[in-house]
Amino acid sequence: PPASSAPIFGEVAQELGLDENMVLFLLNDFIASSQPILQNLEMAISRNDCQTIAKTAHSLKGAAGNLRLHSIAKLSQQCEAKARNDEPADYYGFFQQIRQKIESLKLEVQ
Length: 110
Known about the structure:
By secondary structure, the chain is mainly alpha-helical. Helices cover 80% and strands 0% of the residues.
């Protein structure tokens, strides 16, 4: 897609020093690989398994951060921090926001 229709490609490409086609490939890979991670996160939330919530959120945080997907990384980091401390939190709310941001990204890269 041209940079004008999806400004994220140009910004990420510039930050990472990659061309836009490589960024598109990496973003599509992130979207695909995030699906099983999201399933694991949702299952861990349903079991109130804070250790797995923290581990899974940490994985998402790292992958999103590497691609400069700051909003996904920040939500994942907040979820991870609360789970690491066994804090009561709206983990399902975090999950829904993260999933929604990944779905929005999916629409941008199509």
